[in-house]
Amino acid sequence: EGLPDELKDLGGWVVAKPSTDLAESPFVVVVLRPAGDESFEPTMIWLEERVFSADQKKYTSKVFDVMNLPKVKKNQRLVLGGQCHLDGKPDSRFFAVAVYEDKEYFTNLLKAWKVNVEAKKFESAKIDRIKCENLEYGL
After folding, report:
1. What is the pLDDT of residue 58?
2. What per-residue confidence (pLDDT) applies to 8?
3. What distance in Å separates the CA atoms of residue 56 and residue 64, rounded to the nearest whole number?
4. Those residues with Cβ within 8 angstroms of residue 19's Cβ, 6 or more apart along the chain or in another chain
5. C-alpha to C-alpha distance for 101 and 119, rounded to whole angstroms
6. CB 66 within 8 A of CB 39
7. Which three-class secondary structure state does DSSP give residue 23?
8. How many CB atoms lie within 10 A of CB 15?
9. Under 8 Å CB-to-CB from 23, ≥6 apart: which residues?
10. Full-prediction pTM beyond 0.70?
């Protein structure tokens, strides 16, 4: 709803600081691709803040930041929200590009980003304390 015709919404994830209940967070990262592209390759993300009506049935959203996602090679994976861990603990603020490895967690990250909920923007993140779940592992 409210999305330009040239974009297709691929879903997204709720973002919050680890001390905040995800259900209480108004921040959502929306994953997008061009509407004419039938692949599932996301090309862009938006950071939105959603404000719900009193009855919780409708919301308005405001986009605070937009980021073009990098193209990944066949041996790489774009690991989006809810799959990355900081110091061994799940942290919805982080996402990354990882080199594919057939193991439970990706630890060879090429680049990582953080959603800064205070500043309401995407930022580069240091990769040394981050690992991300490999959802393809064991399939």
Report:
1. 84
2. 87
3. 22
4. none
5. 33
6. no
7. helix
8. 25
9. 14
10. yes
Residue 68 has what pLDDT?
93
Q: What is the CA radius of gyration of the chain?
A: 15
pLDDT, position 57? 82
| Distance from C-alpha of 3 to C-alpha of 32, rounded to nearest angstrom | 10
- Residues whose CB falls within 8 Å of the CB of residue 133, separated by 6 or more in sequence, listed in order: 79, 83, 84, 85, 104, 105, 106
Q: Per-10-residue mean pLDDT for the chain, 139 residues long?
A: 81 85 85 81 89 82 93 92 92 95 96 95 96 90
Closest by CA to 93, choosing from 85, 103, 101, is 85
- How confident is the model at residue 116, as a pLDDT? 95
- Assign 52 to helix, strand or coil: strand
Burial 50-77 (b: 16+ CB within 10 A, else e): eeeeeeeeeeeeeebbebebeebeeebb
- Residue 124 to residue 116: CA distance in whole angstroms: 10
